[in-house]
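Example 3.2
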Amino acid sequence: MIRYVSGKKPFAVALVLLAVFAVCVGSRISYVQARASAYVEQEKQLEQNIAEERARSEALIEYEEYMKTPEFIEEIAEERLGLVHDGDIIFKSVTR
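Structure, written as tokens:
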């Protein structure tokens, strides 16, 4: 059996419960907003990373195309294999 007490006591209990509920909801809202803000920052960082990786990918594609050209092959042959052309003057250092 439920007894109802006359007066302000049930109203005060309801008011306290409402205040506790409001505090809980308010703290949860601030927590969710903080997480949302963190997710927005993370999303911006990831979008920046994607843009950087796309630029890097494009640069690699361009370099791959350059590697197929005769100029690249000649450049590598000159640097690594010592290729010289007719009419080139070769200087050798003499160390004592």
